[in-house]
Write a structure and sequence with these properties.
The protein contains 9 helices and 9 strands. By secondary structure, the chain is of the alpha/beta class.
Length: 289
């Protein structure tokens, strides 16, 4: 067992098609999960929006289970902030604005944001993509600051912000305290050595996503099923004295609960421990002034 103990939680992502959002929260709590990322994607959540009754039910369920929601994540299957198609880009922006409002209403302090995608066969020139990214981020950060919900910019192998150094550079240029970095180890593994990539985003780091993959096929599978070495990542986090949450963003549709509990056991060997449900690691958003 490692000497350090990093707070570990899980996303509702793995239950997206097997049960409702409320039931997913219950199953996570029954597995000892106290920190949760809400995956706000269909069929759990459509258009990043819940009506007033459902928002209240989700808030009450989280409170009654003694959980702390640390982030919400639309998953970005359809959302693309840098689409050259104006209608698609504007629709993506509106959904993410809705997600920020949902984060405020549910008292969730961070929205995980994936910068977008370029077509792998004919990627648009950076001269076209980068101005779109900074414009969209600027609009979202204005609302983010009003609502008190931070934006966590995530690395991802989609030909936009592929590497952690790309995420760090955007955070540096914008320089907003409302913009943080989310380090996804499986995404990083596809394009770089993860522990080396992680070092770039340490000054901005607000959240860590944990799952496994191989470089042959991009996955978010249970820990131990791929070829990621988690020990070096733990070492980098400990040396940086990172005190934020780590979330298992695992997609195991066949055996979701077993995939999470198995992963938690393996991660415990490198010092990650399921956090106490009543331990709050991030300040919750305040009401807009």
């Amino acid at each position: 067992m490692a000497e350090s103990s990093r707070a570990l939680g899980a996303a509702t992502y793995t239950y997206l098609y097997s049960c409702s959002l409320l039931e997913a929260l219950r199953r996570l709590a029954q597995s000892g999960v106290g920190l949760v990322e809400l995956t706000v994607a269909p069929p759990h959540v459509d258009r990043c929006t819940l009506d007033r009754e459902m928002r209240e039910r989700v808030r009450n369920e989280i409170a009654e289970l003694g959980m702390t929601a640390v982030s919400l994540n639309p998953t970005y299957l359809d959302i693309n902030l840098v689409s050259l198609n104006t209608d698609m880009r504007e629709a993506s922006l509106e959904q993410l604005k809705a997600a920020l409002r949902l984060g405020h209403d549910l008292e969730v302090p961070m929205l995980v944001l994936f910068a977008g995608r370029r077509h792998p066969l004919a990627p648009a020139p950076r001269a076209l993509v980068d101005p779109l990214l900074f414009d969209q981020l600027g609009q979202l950060l204005k609302l983010s600051e009003e609502l008190g919900v931070k934006i966590g910019l995530e690395n991802g192998p989609t030909l936009v912000l592929d590497k952690c150094e790309d995420v760090a550079e955007v955070c540096r240029i914008i320089g907003s305290p409302s913009l943080r970095a989310v380090f996804d180890v499986a995404n990083s593994h596809m394009v770089e050595e993860p522990s080396a990539g992680l070092r770039h985003v340490l000054p901005y780091l607000g959240l860590v996503h944990l799952s496994d993959t191989t470089r042959v096929r991009w996955e978010h599978s249970r820990v131990g099923s791929g070829d990621i070495a988690f020990g070096p990542i733990a070492t980098v986090l400990d040396r940086a004295r990172y005190e934020g949450p780590s979330i298992m963003e695992i997609v195991d549709l066949a055996s979701p609960t077993e995939g999470l509990t198995s992963s938690a056991r393996k991660l415990a060997k490198d010092g990650w421990q399921l956090a106490s449900p009543l331990r709050t690691l991030i300040n919750k958003p305040s009401a807009p002034k």
